[in-house]
Amino acid sequence: MKDLSNENVVHIKKDNIEYLQFRKLLQYEEIIHCYTLSKNNFDVGSNNTYEINKESIKENYEKIAKCLNFNIKEIIRPYQTHTNVVKCIKNEYNEYSIFPKELTDVDGLLTDEENIFSLSYADCTPIYLYDTKKKVIGNIHSGWQGTLKGIGKIAVQTMINNYNSNAEDIICCFGPHIKKCHFEVDEDVANKFRKKYEAMNDINDIITYNPEKNKYNIDTQKINTNLVKELGLKEENIIDSGICTVCQKDLMHSYRANGENAGRNTAIMGKRRKNI
Ligand SMILES: [Zn+2]
User: Fold this and answer.
1) Buried b vs exposed e over 116-129: b needs ≥16 C-beta within 10 Å?
2) Domains in the chain, CATH or no CATH each
């Protein structure tokens, strides 16, 4: 059976579900995290399919909660719409909270309290943030639009401003996403990225032209890395899973590979309750 483990992530197969975890984040017992794979139809649904499949989605959340040892009542999931909006969450949710009204058009969550964030992904980049000193966590959805809007940088800046985080204490992990090998766009999108990020000194490696197809390939992971480095994150604390969702489409939901009907993988990032 295929195993996606590499120097940065470990591929777990447990109780009929499969998920990835970052070796670096596993060093911190106070946090809970994973990226679920599509094995055995594990799917948390998209904004459009959630309502129809909510019973099976809840069962899937129950399975992953059991594996990672948390209570699904702690789950908070925003209604993501590719914004650059990052919200700071208090310990204010006591029910299984999927799409609470006040978390509509929100694509990043931060907290220093005990909450479990579940965001959904099918090619977009999940950014896991952890301030190891101030114990602040973040789960940030950065698709190409979010990357163009710099949501990863906005999230780190919010940690610095609102939680007094020091950049050198922050770990930033990029989960599986559509990588440069498959993120192929037309000139209009390429131009938006070039215009926004022309000051990056590796912009010519980030955006490359493929004359055979008359398409451009964009390395969003390099952009996100540059953005968090600009705020002072240390090189060794910026970790990429190295996994492309389209290359691994047999193991994970991918929008490019499966289109409109693609399911969703979830990135979970949370702080463990002391007494459950
Ligand atoms: Zn690929």
Assistant:
1) bbbbbbbbbbbbbb
2) 9-179+220-271 (3.60.140.10), 184-218 (no CATH)
Q: For residue range 22-76, what is the model confidence (pLDDT) as tens digits?
A: 999 999 999 999 999 999 999 999 999 999 999 999 999 999 999 999 999 999 9
CA of 81 to the centre of ligand 1 (A): 24
- Locate 9 and state its tokens: 């992530």
Output the CA 79–ligand 1 centroid distance in Å.
27
Q: Quickly tell me which residue has 């600009």 as its tokens.
A: 230
Q: How far is the CA of 219 from the centre of ligand 1 (A)?
A: 11
Question: Under 8 Å CB-to-CB from 102, ≥6 apart: which residues?
Answer: none
CA distances from 33 to 55, 216, 262 (A): 23, 33, 23
- Model pLDDT, residue 276: 53
**0.85 exceeded by pTM:** yes
Ligand 1 geometric centre to CA of 19 (Å):
19
CA of 183 to the centre of ligand 1 (A): 7
Compute the distance from residue 179 Cα to the ligand 1 centre, in Å: 5
